[in-house]
């Protein structure tokens, strides 16, 4: 794919993110996205057959960008160091990219998420990366052998809750507070 096509597709994604954050899924028609992205409405339909496809592809795009950031882990770190590093990178990424954070949060609460659950496998939206990371810890005996849903609820749930609390102004984000939170999570999942 040439650079111009990639730039148009990214412009469409970025405009969609902005408009959905402002107007919600249903309040953002394709014509408005096209206008905001400075492309013809027909151009959007060249890339995406429907608004549903655009939104589900945007979700995958956001997840890929997030995973590229959080899983950019230095070689040689211990599992515990990676556990802390990935979590902190996720929190930092969402705080720096609030449009992505709020889009993903809306997506998980929408019928779109049910749609991808039925039609796509976890590699489509990157859940396999986290699953493999947790499995590495379980297989090596470092963390407790509990379900993926339990681990993800604790690990990602705490990260997203922390981002929400910071964004809403309920708490001030501090290094010490984050360190305390990830330490509590670690102490709950590590093998004693």
Question: What this model shows, in words?
Answer:
The chain has 192 residues and is an all-alpha fold. The protein folds into 2 domains: 48 residues, Homeodomain-like (Arc Repressor Mutant, subunit A, Orthogonal Bundle), CATH 1.10.10; 139 residues, Tetracycline Repressor, domain 2 (Orthogonal Bundle). Helix content is 74%, strand content 0%. The chain has 10 helices and no strands. α1 packs across α2, α1 crosses α6 and α9 runs antiparallel to α10. The longest helix is centred in the first third of the chain and has 21 residues. The radius of gyration is 18 Å and the shape is elongated. The mean pLDDT is 91. This is TetR/AcrR family transcriptional regulator. Keywords: DNA-binding. InterPro entries: Homeodomain-like_sf, HTH-type_Tx_Regulator, HTH_TetR, Tet_transcr_reg_TetR-rel_C_sf, TetR-like_HI_0893_C.
Supply database-style keywords:
192 residues, 2 domains, Arc Repressor Mutant, subunit A, Tetracycline Repressor, domain 2, 74% helix, single chain, 10 helices, mainly alpha, TetR/AcrR family transcriptional regulator
């Amino acid at each position: 794919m040439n650079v111009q096509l990639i730039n148009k597709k990214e412009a469409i994604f970025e405009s969609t993110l902005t408009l959905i954050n402002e107007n919600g899924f249903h309040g953002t028609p394709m014509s408005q996205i096209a206008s905001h992205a400075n492309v013809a409405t027909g151009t959007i339909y060249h890339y995406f057959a429907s608004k549903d496809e655009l939104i589900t592809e945007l979700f995958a795009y956001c997840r890929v960008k997030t995973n590229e950031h959080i899983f950019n882990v230095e070689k040689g770190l211990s599992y515990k160091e990676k556990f802390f590093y990935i979590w902190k990178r996720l929190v930092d990424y969402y705080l720096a990219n609030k449009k992505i954070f709020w889009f993903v949060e809306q997506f998980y609460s929408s019928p779109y998420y049910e749609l991808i659950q039925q039609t796509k496998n976890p590699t489509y939206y990157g859940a396999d990366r986290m699953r493999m990371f947790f499995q590495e810890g379980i297989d090596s005996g470092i963390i407790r052998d509990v379900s993926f849903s339990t681990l993800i609820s604790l690990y990602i749930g705490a990260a997203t809750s922390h981002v929400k609390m910071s964004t809403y102004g309920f708490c001030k984000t501090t290094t010490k507070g984050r360190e305390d939170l990830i330490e509590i999570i670690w102490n709950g999942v590590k093998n004693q």
